[in-house]
Amino acid sequence: AQSVTQPDIHITVSEGASLELRCNYSYGATPYLFWYVQSPGQGLQLLLKYFSGDTLVQGIKGFEAEFKRSQSSFNLRKPSVHWSDAAEYFCAASSGNTPLVFGKGTRLSVIA
Amino acid sequence: DVKVTQSSRYLVKRTGEKVFLECVQDMDHENMFWYRQDPGLGLRLIYFSYDVKMKEKGDIPEGYSVSREKKERFSLILESASTNQTSMYLCASTIPGHGAGELFFGEGSRLTVL
């Protein structure tokens, strides 16, 4: 079955530190891959997406993600975290026009 | 500015009540979705629709139904609410194809069933 796994339920980082959130997928072929963010009390917002081509994709708010086919991974990174980045992050995948399958999310806390 | 509007942000209902959750999008999107979000479980797909009058079951359709009479409106119905349906419900829409993953979400409807 198609699935998306986010191994980390909760991560805490210091403001200004770098961040990496992990995501692994299990699909027959390379799916389309996405990262969404949900700030407290808000709906989900698309951060970035990967369809094909360059394996390093840039998104909004200074985030980037790297697709690694050999590891079936699509990890999200940010060089320097801001307090406003505290939120829940969801990795998701889709094969063409099928509905998105979401991971269970990683909650990010940012400390001073 | 694109917008997906869910009619109620917070609802409290009693067990056995019929519940309607309304979702309207103003982007002329063909595809619409209902997810429920629970802590530790992420987002799980309840139902989706790729066209008016069309509906497909998602991963957890039991206890739910949907209606799509107009392109812009997708309603989720709980025929007889139960306490295990207490959750956050998220509506989303998108266009077909590659854009199918670029979901636009509403702000959610938090339902409590007593």
Query: Which strand-content bin applies to the residues of chain A?
Result: over 45%
Radius of gyration of chain B in whole Å, from Cα? 13 Å
Low-confidence stretches of chain A: none
Reading the helices and strands of chain A in chain order gives EEEEEEEEEEEE
Number of strands of chain B: 12
* Share in β-strands of chain B: over 45%
Question: Which geometry of chain A do the CA atoms define?
Answer: globular
Contiguous runs where pLDDT drops below 50 for at least 5 residues of chain B: none
* Biggest chain-to-chain interface with counts: A-B, 26 and 25 residues
Q: Which whole number gives the mean pLDDT of chain B?
A: 92
End-to-end CA span of chain B? 37 Å
Helix content of chain A: under 10%
Number of strands of chain A: 12
The helix/strand class of chain B is mainly beta
The average pLDDT value of chain A, as a whole number, equals 93
Instruction: Supply the helix-strand structural class of chain A.
Output: mainly beta
Terminal Cα separation of chain A, in Å? 41 Å
How many distinct helices of chain A?
A: 0
Index terms:
heterodimer; A: 112 residues; mainly beta; six-stranded mixed beta sheet; four-stranded antiparallel beta sheet; B: 114 residues; three-stranded antiparallel beta sheet; globular
